[in-house]
Amino acid sequence: MGKENKLKLLTFNTWGLKYLSTYRKERLTAIADTLAGEKVATPIPELEDFVKDEDYNFDIIALQEIWSEDDWNYITKKCKTKYPYSRLFYSGIVSGPGLAILSKIPIQSTNLYRFPINGLPTAITRGDWFVGKSVAITTFEVAGQQIAVFNSHMHAPYALSGSQNYKAHRSVQAWDFNHLVQLYKKAGYATILVGDLNSRPGSLPYSLLIDSGLSDSWELSRNNKKDDLVAISKMTPAEQIIEGCTTCDTILNTWRTDICEPDEAQRLDYALVDSDKFDVLDGHAIFTDIIPHIGSFSDHFAYTCTLVLKDPSSTANSSNIEDSVVVGNSSLIDNENDKIKIEQRVAIYTELLETIQDYVKTCNTRDTIRQSIAAVSFLTFFFLIILYLSKGDPQNLSNYKFVTGILIGVLLTLTFVFFSLIGLAFGRSERRAFKEVENEVTDILTSLNTNNKTYGSL
Question: How far apart are CA 422 and CA 418, in angstroms?
């Protein structure tokens, strides 16, 4: 394999929320300067020999949370010589999805897929719905092979469990992601999925992404060694980064030191790759240094990996049971290993189905509350109107009572209109989107169970 077959990737959530992120401009400037080849930060003492200067030389860079065009303009200007090809993606009604690509390799094409299910418009303090979380797809040609890079920042979990975890939203996003990846794989692309996926290893969204036929580059770099999350939680903070690639909530990140416990460190940033098309030479966390007088580059550490494209002739006849089953192919299953794979998929899809059904029950409760608030607001406003009309000329009432009544009436009217519009516009749309995915999952489960029965009769 020649050097032209190697591909070094970087995925980095830059924490670029305009007006909200601490030292945003200074940190994004330092990120751009570092990408351009300048040394602007010092290593954490515990990780002094962990990352080398040469590790900062990438071929393709996928960024998340680029939510200020001023930041993006500085990044592209600073990195123009080293990374002449770039793209910022647009979506949503506020800021955009925050997804961007920098590359040494010419970009062939770009496309943006916006997730149909992406949080709630009523969750104003969350912001996921307003920015239009998406998948940014960029294609390249490397050593004569077509490559598709999927960059995304999936819906955030705002709690470990419960409605604020948004598990159903993230899982359905992973389901859509799964289908997108498979479409490009079937078209012959070597596929790479990168980003802040906001999902722990082994979680349902993670399992759905792996189910697309991709492999975790971090695990491949360690001879397919799976993460032991319990063991990682008991490691020292430095060991968690070196041995567990914990890119988020580590206390060695200055923006997490005072708000996280040592056992909360987790891996949320990934590069999932088509192992039929790529070998993985290495993978590790990066951008772990400290900017003097500022702190860490971001509230996440970045992740980088080096891939080697396999010879196309060696992968031309490779087959994957996952690809055949997911589209309902009823070809006979050949061996016990394939049956185990089918059973694993049934378990994943069954959990997805149950997750959707549980969330829909929550939606029913939420809609009932919303409708009740709208009804009470309307009736109260109607009562106030009747009351004031029965009093005769408003001028006969004390001014402060009249003004107060008017303000209450306006507030109640706005409340009624708001909750009515949310129910009519968003509520129905969300419900139908979940119903569609529920039907898709049911169809595939039926196909999988048919294949399993066929196997049992052989």
Answer: 6
Task: Return the amino acid letter for 14.
Answer: T
Q: pTM score, two decimals?
A: 0.87
| Structural tokens at position 413 | 């009217």
How many Cα atoms sit within 13 Å of 186 on the Cβ side? Answer: 13
Q: Where are the beta strands (DSSP E) in 98-255?
A: 100-103, 109-114, 134-142, 145-153, 190-196, 215-216
Q: Shortest CA distance to 1 belongs to which of 279, 219, 274?
A: 279
The proportion of the chain whose per-residue pLDDT surpasses 70, expressed as a percent, equals 77
Residue 169 annotated among the catalytic residues of the structure: no
47: closest CA among 198, 194, 245?
Answer: 245
From the list 153, 155, 284, 300, the catalytic residue is: 300
Contacts of 432 (CB under 8 A, 6+ apart): none
**10 Å Cβ neighbour count for 411?**
13
Residue 416 has pLDDT above 80, yes or no: no
Eight-state DSSP code of residue 8? E
Q: Measured between alpha carbons, how far is 423 from 431 in angstroms, rounded to an integer?
A: 10
The CA distances from residue 406 to 381, 392, 418, in Å, are 10, 15, 18
Question: Which segments of 286-335 does DSSP mark as H helices, in order?
Answer: 312-315, 321-326
Tokens, residue 88: 């910022």
Closest CA to 50 of 250, 287, 229: 287
Of the candidate ranges 108-122, 185-199, 377-391, the one whose mean pLDDT is the lowest: 377-391
The CATH topology of domain 3-318 is Deoxyribonuclease I; Chain A (3.60.10)
Instruction: State the chain's mean pLDDT as an integer.
Output: 86
